[in-house]
Structure formats: structure tokens, C-alpha cells
Amino acid sequence: MKRVRVIDSHTGGEPTRVVIEGGPDLGQGSIAERLEIFRTSHDGFRSAVVKEPRGSDVMVGALLVPPCDSTSTAAVIFFNNVGYLGMCGHGAIGVVATLDYLNLIKPGPQRIETPVGVITATLAESGEVTIHNVPSYRYKAKVPIEVEGLGLIQGDIAWGGNWFFLVDGLTTQLDVKQASHWTQVATRIKQALLDNNITGENNAEIDHIEIFAPSPTANSRSFVLCPGNAYDRSPCGTGTSAKLACLAADGKLKEGDLWRQESIVGSHFDASYKQQGNQIVPAISGRAWVNSEAFLVLDPRDPFCWGIRG
Ligand code: PYC
Asked: Model-level pTM?
């Protein structure tokens, strides 16, 4: 019987479950090596923490591991219902809110290691957190693709800590009541990318799809499909980073100017960027709220101890 201490929060409606104690020992290697050990030797722990019956398809897990660099506050591996994420913006905001809740940090900048690079997350006295994400860039613009039920559409491919396909102009309205419709549309776009071997750089799978529409209260509203086919309730920190990279590449947003991204549930991230060569460093601000503290009980006699797989 194993007890795993977790703290749950949500960032703009999107949940993060931070594992505080009871996680697997992943050794002392680089964070990429530890991610590989997690994936190959402890994948049941991932599904036990985030999948039903303890979690849900929407839940993102965050395993805190000792940082490689002593100046870092933490190192974190994010995971979900189907695997592992490079970075996770809403999740990083959730981790910082959790460390604040535990009185482990004070307001100010926190260096956080992730499998795709180091980010800085600055906690304000108000509780707002600003992530300076990994450098982000547009890889390809206006990529045409034939999608079942949509015909020929086009989208940009961009990196924001995960790979995104960004589609504008499909609709003038994104309403949460139509979330299952947009899930189907985005799933068909993802399938078309796979079928046509359209990838990110170095053949990386594009596992996040973003659909944009106008918003009366923000610069843009988005629907974001995550790898396990759940949609992001937050505006997606890595997705907003990818969006900024496209806006910067198109000359539509100047360095330092504010971009307010709204999610399909109506939550917001405020964002801006700094140019770094031909990439950008996005700054994404939002707030997470701790809403649960618990011990998960992993009893191997339970037939669904490791989650409902599939
Ligand atoms: O906020 O970057 C994000 C994110 C990725 C997947 C879910 N949320």
C-alpha cells in the first residue's frame, strides 16, 4: 500500500495535481534522463495519479524532482492522461501557487527546470504568477491541409514548449457549450496532420491543436485540444506562447505589447514577449487556486489501482 501526497489547484479552470511526497525515485541524471526513467519504469504511477478513478482526462500531473542546479527552486515533470508534456504553462503556475500555499517560497522569481528547458516563474504579492517560458518560435506558416468535414484549411506550426497547429478563421464564435463539437473538429485536424506526416521540427508530433476566434473581452479566444483529447480549460500557457511567436513573426504584435488570451471557458492569461534572435521569450501571467490537499492511496489489490488504462 502506497500513500502519495498531492495538492490540487486550477489555473483558469484547468487542474494541476502536484505530487509532493510518494513519487518514484528517478535517480540523479539530467531531467531528460529522469523523464525517460519515469516513462519506461513508472508509467503506472502516471496513470494512477491522473487517470480515473482518482483523476480525469483533464487532470495534468506535476512530479517535483530534485533540481540539477542548486540555484533552481524545483524541477518538474508534467504528465497527463496519455503521457508526458515538455512544458505546461498553466501547470507551472499551479506548481508555484502550490509552493506558495506550502510556504516554501516567497514572492519573487523562481527558477524551474523542465524537460524542455529552464523557465522563470515570478510570484507577485497578489498571488499572480508570471512565467518566462522557454524560447518559442513559428516553424512554418500557412500550412495547407485537407480535413474531413472542413475541406482545405491552413494553419501555422509553432513551438511554445509543446508543438501546436494554430488555426484561425474557422469560426467567429467559440462557446463552451459547443466544446464537444470543437473537440471533434480539432481531433480531425490532428488526425489529418498525422495522416499527411505534417510535423514539428525534427519530425516531432504536433500534439496540440489551437482554434482561434474573436473575443469581445480579450485580443482573442481559443479552444485548445490537448494530447489525450481533453480540451484545456485555461488559455494554455504553451499555446499562448506559440500564438505570440506567430503574432511576432507576422509583425502583428510588438515586443512588450500586451496580448490578452481568453480560453473557451472565459479565463484569461495576459501575455507579452521579448525578442531573442529569431525566437521570442514569452511572458505569461495568470493565477492558480489551490482547491484540495489529499493523500492518494495506491493499493495493488485494487483492480484499478493504476487507473483505467486504455
Ligand atoms: O498551459 O501549457 C499549458 C498546457 C498544456 C497542456 C495543458 N495546459
From this structure: 0.98
